[in-house]
């Protein structure tokens, strides 16, 4: 398994962030994935990194802070941390985020959950410069997940152990195209397929996208300059290509946050403030969430805190299309990971939009410019998976003509 992890790390360094000679790299992840973080760091240095910084999260230490700290202490972020993030953007570091998939529902206590909302908001404010740079592709970035015993056990519903982990990693390797002879070449071919799909969608010149199944009936309006994006992207102002998500199966764009209307039901659980929430539904009017719910009434307060992070958190910033040919969907597994589950299913995201998905991005220099135009700005970006076997997606172009994009869960274009 170690040999395959090294192969995986090399793929992330070469095709994820596309590390440049003498570039600095930030690698973020959980202490539970420390071995993989070390492998990534070693590979980065092997391929010419100037400096690699590890930022390690420990859920137990975070729980202690939330439990024992006063609320006013939770907003404290050292100035050195803020300065470092600004330096990262200025000096064009690359960032790898290894999502924490080893801790599920560890912050269930309501008092801690409320404090988590306060802490997360302060963290988001402190890292706003970096977040905006990422959303605008000013730096190369990549989000991945490392195989771990708890994650494997949760997904496969089997007892923790090396056998379960090996079985899970075999599935993960197939999804990541690591089971092929030349993963890098296969990633390039996969990216070309997604680029072609984007080209087809952009040529339709769509005004809105309509999602319908047994429960969902949602209309998402696009902007005049919305561009469908998928596969590899380029660091702004350069020819350096990177893959922001590994795996990736989506094509996505930035909608007009002011116009979304209808009701939508999530088809997969969503991680919100370190709590896994199932059965989320949202009702939109004039772009805004006006009603919402979930399966567990106790968790509704956590969801409420999250979508009240700021004024714009109740509006969407992304719409993405994925069909049932996705290998993640084909696995018939729920991964309890936003990265994996969003690439198994069509989804929308509450909160911040990707300015990089707008052809007039350069004209939108301030947050006010973006919001006035219809490009959402928020401290959160939370994906909500809405795809299903019975989902139909209709695109209506600016002449009022309808185009079937997805029929019964499968692409029709």
Automatic annotation (TrEMBL):
InterPro entries: M29_Exopeptidase, M29_N-terminal, Peptidase_M29. GO terms for molecular function: aminopeptidase activity; metal ion binding; metallopeptidase activity. The keyword Hydrolase applies. Keywords: Aminopeptidase, Hydrolase, Metal-binding, Metalloprotease, Protease. It comes from the Bacteria. GO terms for biological process: proteolysis. Its cofactor is Zn(2+); Mg(2+); Co(2+). It is an enzyme of class 3 (hydrolase). Its EC number is 3.4.11.-. PANTHER family: AMINOPEPTIDASE, AMINOPEPTIDASE AMPS. Belongs to the peptidase M29 family. This is Aminopeptidase. It comes from Borreliella californiensis.
């Amino acid at each position: 398994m170690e040999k395959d992890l090294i192969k995986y790390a090399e793929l992330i360094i070469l095709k994820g962030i596309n590390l440049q000679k003498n570039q600095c790299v930030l690698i973020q992840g959980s202490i539970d994935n420390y071995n993989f973080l070390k492998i990534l760091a070693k590979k980065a240095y092997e391929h010419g990194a100037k400096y690699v910084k590890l930022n390690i999260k420990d859920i137990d230490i975070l729980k202690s802070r939330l439990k024992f700290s006063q609320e006013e202490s939770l907003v404290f972020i050292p100035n050195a941390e803020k300065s470092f993030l600004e330096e990262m953007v200025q000096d064009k570091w690359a960032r790898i985020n290894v999502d924490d998939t080893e801790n599920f529902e560890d912050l269930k206590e309501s008092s801690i959950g409320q404090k988590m909302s306060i802490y997360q908001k302060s963290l988001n404010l402190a890292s706003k410069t970096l977040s905006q740079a990422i959303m605008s592709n000013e730096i190369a970035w990549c989000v991945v997940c490392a195989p771990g015993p708890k994650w494997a056990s949760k997904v496969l519903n089997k007892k923790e152990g090396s056998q379960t982990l090996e079985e899970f990693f075999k599935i993960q390797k197939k999804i990541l195209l690591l089971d092929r002879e030349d993963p890098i070449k296969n990633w390039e071919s996969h990216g070309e397929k997604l680029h072609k799909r984007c080209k087809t969608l952009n040529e339709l010149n769509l005004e809105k996208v309509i999602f319908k199944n047994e429960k969902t009936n949602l209309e998402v309006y696009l902007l005049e300059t919305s561009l469908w994006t998928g596969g590899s992207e380029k660091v702004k102002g350069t020819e350096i290509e990177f893959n922001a998500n590994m795996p990736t199966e989506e094509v996505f764009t930035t909608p007009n946050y002011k116009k979304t209307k209808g009701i939508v039901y999530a088809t997969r659980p969503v991680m919100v403030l370190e709590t896994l929430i199932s059965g989320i539904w949202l009702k939109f009017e004039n772009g805004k969430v006006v009603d919402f719910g979930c399966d567990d009434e106790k968790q509704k307060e956590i969801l409420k805190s999250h979508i009240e992070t700021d004024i714009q958190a109740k509006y969407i910033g992304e719409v993405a299309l994925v069909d049932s040919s996705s290998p993640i969907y084909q696995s018939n597994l729920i991964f309890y990971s936003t990265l994996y589950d969003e690439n198994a299913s069509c989804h929308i995201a509450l909160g911040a939009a990707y300015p990089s998905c707008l052809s007039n991005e350069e004209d939108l220099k301030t947050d006010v410019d973006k919001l006035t135009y219809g490009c959402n700005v928020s401290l959160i970006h939370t994906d909500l998976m809405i795809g299903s076997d019975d989902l139909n997606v209709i695109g209506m172009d600016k002449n009022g003509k309808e185009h079937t994009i997805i029929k019964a869960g499968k692409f029709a274009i």
